[in-house]
Every structure is written in structure tokens, then in C-alpha cells.
Design a protein that fits this description.
seven-stranded mixed sheet, 2 domains, five-stranded parallel sheet, 14 helices, about 35% helix, Aldehyde Dehydrogenase, Chain A, domain 1, 22 strands, Aldehyde Dehydrogenase, Chain A, domain 2, alpha/beta
């Protein structure tokens, strides 16, 4: 393979890659059903209480089982982390960089196996899975470079007298809990963990109960790269029980979380009780795209389709609101409908499939409720049905990519659904479109399609979101990459004001100390 797989690959000869992916898929399927541990202090922990990982395309297919970590073990987990962190925090920053870069190499070397696992566990298409794995490795490399470029975040300060020298030094907080979601099960777990580890912290990773298998790959890469025992631990269990208990634990010095606004706000409240502890939250979005009168219609349709329905809409950056100039509305709707009808929905492990299943039965039920509302209050353009496929896929969680016409103020145009479901409405002027796009509690991503540079620049100046795209055929609101687009949520979409994939990420996991030495 002569190029990297990112989320922006549109045209390339992928025949060799697909053959390699098929071989990796066969190998992974040959090892299904294993029982895997939690990892505490560098040792496998087996509780006997198993969490099952199943294929959302074939729910009867057991991928692997994971030993849950009981809440009663968290005291030991945190104690181990605190003990390991003391030595890790004192480790030279150059060594931390070396280990994380080696882990990135191992992830890249294993990209086919890890991607095959992800496709089976999460329902991502093979191209989405390959992009996730490659992003994981790039996040480790990019964050390691931040620490290197800052020379360990040690900076000389001014003098008040000739006999004193003062340094500003960034030091680790201690122990970070990392709570990662199912939709980017490797990239988000890797990115949040890498920021904390490079800052000299110990990490306790609690992956989503929907995607524990991918976390195993991250653990193995970090350990084989040379990370000392106890510095990175993996505990398995449900968010409502184990995750909540981890956040509440007084020995946890900080939390990094990606997930829903409701859970994130609860975490923020918990982390502000007693003493204020760092809390880095990425909390989703209700992301808009504006299609102007002079837009390249074909590019707009392609970009909106890819952003709305990649990973079945289960991205915090997914496009869920489209505002189209009234002169283009009919043509845009017609083109988007044709695009949706041509897309294959099915087993995401097949090269021909664009959209796989949603993650679980609860997501299907959420889809069905949204469709009922749309039929009552708007108009369904295309989709809106649960798909009942045949054979081994008969019980899969498949729903049709859905486009609906809805007024801007409708609940479905304001609430994050995390589904392959996009609402469309018209506008008359760019003033109207910007007002509609910004009229939302979220502010994660947004896009515009226009040939007018002045309109594009106005969008860049006025759109209330942390990630903005103009005329992006490969994804109207999706596709951020480490070191290329910072991924920072505004308003209810984030908490720190400095996002992942960007140049300020690692320093957030450290606190400043002034060191004055008198000569």
C-alpha cells in the first residue's frame, strides 16, 4: 500500500488492500470466542463475570468475552496507578516519546488485524475501520511530537535579580481516567490516553462496553512498546456502574471523556466536588451544512451524503442538519435521494458496503421513534425503514439511511440522534442560513458549499463551531485528522476550548509549576 488510509480517500486503486483485508478478516474470524481479561498492574485479571462483545451485523455471533472489573477492585486499580505514576512521571520526556512512537509503529504494523476486529465489533465499513486505526497511530506520533517540540514543556522565565533563575515547568497531575466511546474505539481511546501518558500521568482506560475488543489491541501495543506495568491499565464494565465509580474515586486526578452531553455534564459536576480536577469532555453535536445558491451541487451532495451516513451517522461530527438555498432545494433533494438509494447497506465486512448496522437494539428503537415523528411532522424523502436482511444478517441492527424534510425548530433538528438520519430545510439568504446553523446548543462541526470566497470567509468568521469546512466533497462536516484539523467542541460540544488532533492537546494533561533557584 503506497498511501495511508484516511477518512478522505475517494479515488485510489484499493484492490490489493481489499485482498489483504479479506485475509486479515479470515484470520480474525478463526479466533473468535476467546475470553480476555481486564489488565491491572500489568497482570491479567479474571473475575469470571463476563462481558460479551457481539457483532451488531450478526448479534448471534460472539466475538470475544471480557472479564469485568468489579467496582470493589477500583481501590487497588487506583493504588497501582498512583504507585506506577511516580516513576513514570519522573521518566525523561525523551523516553516517554520513544515508547509512544514505538506503540504507533506497532499499531500501524497491525492495522489490518485491528481494522478487521473493528469492522466486526462496531459495524464500521472496512475503509472507516482502516482510517480509525491509522488515525490512532498518527495521534500517538503527533502528540509525541508536541512534547518533543516543547522540549518537555520547560521554559525559562524572566529574572527579578541577577542571582535567580526561574523555569516554568509543566508537571503531570497524577492518575487520569479515560472513558472512551464505541464509535472510534481505537482512535479516541488512543488519543486521550496518549495525551495523558505523554504528560507523565498514569491512565486507567474504561472502554465502551460495546467495543472492548479494540481496547485490547491498544493495550498490547503500549505494553510491547515498553510502557511499564501499571502505567496503563484497562478495566471492563458498564459505564453506569464501573465508569461512574471510577469518576467518583477520590484517587483519580482527572478525566478524559467522549460521549453524550448528559453523561459529560454529570462527570463535570463530579469532578468539581471537593476540589476542582481537570475534566476534558467532547460531547457530541448537531452539525449543520449550508448549501448556497452558487454551490457545486455535485460536490455538495457527495459531501453531505458521506458526512451524514458514514458509520451509520454514529459520529459526533456527523452531518444532521442541511440548509439548502431554496433555488437548489428540489435538485439537491433529488440528487441526495439517488445517492442514498445507490448505497449498499449490509455486512460492513464486504468491500461493496458503504453503511453497516447501528450499534445495538436501543439505537434501532431510537431510529424508529425518530421516523414516527418525522412522518407526523415533516416529509420522508428516502429511507425510514428498519431493514430485515436475509440469512446470517437477519437479526442485524440495520436501518435505512434516511433523509427528511423538517422545519428548523423541530425537535429532530435540535436533538443529537446518533443515527443515519438527516433533516433538510430551505433558506433564502446567507444571513438566514448562518442564523439557523448557529441556533443550536451544540457547536462541534459545520460546513458550507459556495463558490463565493466572500461568503466562505463570512462563514468562517461567524459559524459557531470548533471545526469548519468549506466545499469539502470528502465530507461536509466530518474527517478531521491529527495535525490537520483540530477537533474542538464549542458550546455544549466540549469543555476545555482546546481539542484533540490539535497543537495544544498534550499540555492540558499537565499543570504548571514555577521553579526559582537562587545562585
Amino acid at each position: 500500500m503506497s498511501f495511508r488510509i484516511t477518512y478522505s480517500v475517494l479515488e485510489a486503486d484499493l484492490s490489493t488492500l481489499h485482498a489483504q483485508f479479506d485475509a486479515a478478516l479470515d484470520a480474525v474470524r478463526g479466533a473468535l470466542g476467546a475470553q480476555l481479561p481486564s489488565w491491572i498492574g500489568g497482570e491479567p485479571y479474571r473475575s469470571g463475570d463476563l462481558l460479551e462483545s457481539r457483532n451488531p451485523a450478526k448479534p448471534d455471533e460472539l466475538l470475544a468475552s471480557f472479564h469485568r472489573t468489579p467496582v470493589s477492585e477500583l481501590d487497588r486499580v487506583v493504588r497501582v496507578a498512583r504507585e506506577a505514576q511516580r516513576a513514570w512521571g519522573a521518566t525523561a520526556w525523551e523516553e516517554r516519546v520513544r515508547i509512544l512512537r514505538r506503540a504507533a509503529e506497532l499499531i500501524s504494523e497491525r492495522r489490518l488485524e485491528l481494522s478487521a476486529r473493528m469492522t466486526l465489533e462496531v459495524g464500521k465499513s472496512r475503509m472507516e475501520s482502516l482510517g480509525d486505526v491509522e488515525e490512532s497511530a498518527d495521534l500517538l506520533r503527533y502528540y509525541a511530537a508536541q512534547l518533543e517540540q516543547a522540549e518537555g514543556f520547560r521554559r525559562p522565565m524572566a529574572r527579578l535579580s541577577p542571582h535567580e533563575d526561574t523555569l516554568s515547568v509543566l508537571r503531570p497531575y497524577g492518575v487520569f481516567a479515560v472513558l472512551s466511546p464505541f464509535n472510534f474505539p481505537l482512535a479516541l481511546a488512543a488519543g486521550m490516553s496518549a495525551g495523558a501518558l505523554l504528560g507523565g500521568n498514569a491512565v486507567i482506560l474504561k472502554p465502551s462496553e460495546e467495543a472492548p475488543w479494540c481496547a485490547e489491541g491498544l493495550y498490547q501495543a503500549l505494553v510491547e512498546a515498553g510502557l511499564p506495568p501499571g502505567v496503563f491499565q484497562v478495566v471492563h464494565g458498564e459505564g453506569e456502574s464501573l465508569g461512574a465509580a471510577l469518576v467518583r474515586h477520590p484517587g483519580v486526578d482527572g478525566v478524559a471523556f467522549t460521549g453524550s452531553k448528559a453523561v459529560g455534564m454529570d462527570i463535570h459536576q463530579q469532578m468539581s466536588t471537593g476540589r476542582v480536577r481537570p475534566c476534558f469532555l467532547e460531547l457530541g453535536g448537531k452539525n449543520p451544512a449550508i448549501v448556497c445558491r452558487d454551490a457545486d451541487l455535485e460536490a455538495a451532495i457527495e459531501g453531505c451524503f458521506r458526512s451524514a451516513f458514514g458509520l451509520s451517522g454514529q459520529k459526533c461530527s456527523a452531518l444532521s442538519r442541511i440548509y439548502v438555498h431554496e433555488s437548489l432545494l428540489d435538485a439537491f433533494i433529488d440528487g441526495l435521494e439517488k445517492k442514498v438509494l445507490a448505497a449498499e447497506v449490509g455486512d460492513p465486512s464486504l468491500a461493496s458496503v458503504f453503511t453497516g448496522p447501528v450499534i445495538n437494539a436501543a439505537a434501532v428503537q431510537r431510529f424508529e421513534r425518530a421516523v414516527d415523528e418525522a412522518r407526523q411532522d415533516g416529509a420522508v424523502v428516502v429511507g425510514a425503514e428498519r431493514l430485515r436482511l436475509e440469512g446470517a444478517l437477519a437479526k442485524g441492527y440495520f436501518v435505512e439511511p434516511t433523509v427528511v424534510l423538517l422545519p428548523h425548530r423541530h425537535r429532530l433538528m435540535r436533538k443529537e440522534l446518533f443515527l443515519p438520519f438527516v433533516g433538510v430545510t430551505g433558506f433564502r439568504t446567507l444571513d438566514d442560513a448562518l442564523q439557523l446553523a448557529n441556533d443550536c446548543e451544540y457547536g462541534l462541526t459545520a460546513g458550507i458549499f459556495s463558490r463565493n470566497p466572500e461568503d466562505v470567509e463570512r462563514f468562517m468568521a461567524e459559524a459557531e463551531a470548533g471545526v469548519l469546512y468549506a466545499n469539502r466533497r470528502t465530507g461536509a462536516t466530518t474527517g478531521a485528522w491529527p495535525g490537520v484539523q483540530s477537533f474542538c467542541g464549542w458550546k455544549a460540544s466540549g469543555a476545555s476550548g482546546k481539542g484533540g488532533c490539535g497543537p495544544y492537546y498534550v499540555s492540558q494533561f499537565m499543570r504548571e509549576q514555577a521553579q526559582t533557584r537562587m545562585g
